[in-house]
Design a protein that fits this description.
It is built from 7 helices and 7 strands. It has a single domain, classed as Vaccinia Virus protein VP39 (Rossmann fold), CATH 3.40.50. It is an alpha/beta fold and 193 residues long. Bound molecules: S-adenosylmethionine. Residues 14, 16, 19-20, 23, 43-47, 49-50, 66-68, 71, 86-87, 102-104, 120-121, 131 line the site of S-adenosylmethionine (SAM).
Length: 193
């Protein structure tokens, strides 16, 4: 990686943080006994950290996807199968055994939004659900009938609101991990039908 590329990664790609670790731990625990060859998609892979953990620690085949081309490059350089995609748009109906997503979830005042890749990684718009809601509307199409979604949500975004919205799209929800910090509690929801 050249100096210019290194600068892009540091300023334009979300690097692993507490939310990434919580999601990776929960997904790896649940997918440890996945069938060999089952297919897992990480939406919004960023650095590829969560997808890399699933690849290393479970029998599943993992595809990493992100809207941000700098993230796709970093994930590929980490040895992952990575594609540029808006949420789940390019994936075939019913093709995925699990979908994992640590979405942009921070409620953001429109006046304070920055128009760059890091803003796309962090900002969930005014209510924090500007990316989560379309994801919930679309993910059922690509999920196998007995597949699961592992979705990171924050108390800042409103866990109950996300559970209610998921219910509108036919999903039941269970909290499989949580961790509290001074300003928020992070929860990993497993969504299933
Ligand atoms: C909070 S970061 C999480 C990064 C990484 N998965 C992690 O846990 O460290 C959210 C990621 O979602 C990506 N993203 C935002 N909107 C997206 C969309 N519509 N489709 C795909 N990825 C998106 C961002 O580029 C960013 O990499």
């Amino acid at each position: 990686m050249g100096l210019e590329d290194q600068r892009d990664v540091e300023t334009d790609v979300y690097q692993p943080a507490e939310d990434s670790h919580l999601l990776a731990d929960a997904a790896c625990d649940d997918l440890a006994d996945a069938d060999e060859g089952s297919l897992v998609l990480e939406v919004g892979t960023g650095s590829g950290y969560v997808a890399g953990r699933i690849d290393d620690e479970t029998p599943a085949r993992v595809i990493a996807a992100d809207l941000n081309p700098h993230a796709v490059r970093q994930a590929r350089e980490a040895g992952l199968e990575a594609v540029r995609a808006d949420l789940v748009a390019p994936f075939a109906d019913g093709a995925l055994d699990a979908v994992v997503f640590n979405p942009p979830y921070l409620p953001t005042d429109p006046d304070n939004e920055w128009d760059d890749w890091m803003e796309q990684a962090l900002s969930g718009g005014e209510d924090g659900r500007a990316v989560i809601d379309p994801f919930l509307a679309e993910v059922g199409r690509v999920l196998a009938p007995d597949g699961s979604v592992y979705l990171l949500v924050s108390s800042l975004t409103g866990v109950d609101d996300v559970v209610e919205e998921a219910g509108e799209h036919g999903f039941s929800a269970a909290a499989v991990a949580d961790e509290s910090f001074p300003f928020e509690t992070l929860t990993v929801l497993e969504l299933f039908r």
